[in-house]
Write a structure and sequence with these properties.
about 30% strand; alpha+beta; three-stranded mixed beta sheet; GMP Synthetase, Chain A, domain 3; 3 helices
Length: about 70
């Protein structure tokens, strides 16, 4: 899986998101800033992102995803 693909999956679901992706092949770290996270706990934010990659995680196309999230004001 390419870093650009990871970024596109996130921005397709959260169009206002600012996304930074690092890593390669099947292990990535993502930093996501989005107003969609407002009022949500860190666990809820991580679940939102993990849910986007459920098919890739289940198939093994994506092995590990480290997630950092914040709202624009943070």
């Amino acid at each position: 899986m390419a870093p650009e693909t990871v970024k596109k999956i996130i921005t397709d679901a959260l169009p206002d998101a600012r996304v930074k992706v690092s890593g390669e092949e099947c292990n990535f770290t993502v930093e996501v800033e989005s107003a969609a996270f407002a009022g949500k706990t860190p666990l809820q934010r991580h679940r939102m992102i993990n849910e986007l990659f459920k098919p890739q995680l289940e198939s093994g196309e994506l092995h590990a995803l480290s997630i950092r999230t914040r709202v624009p004001a943070e």
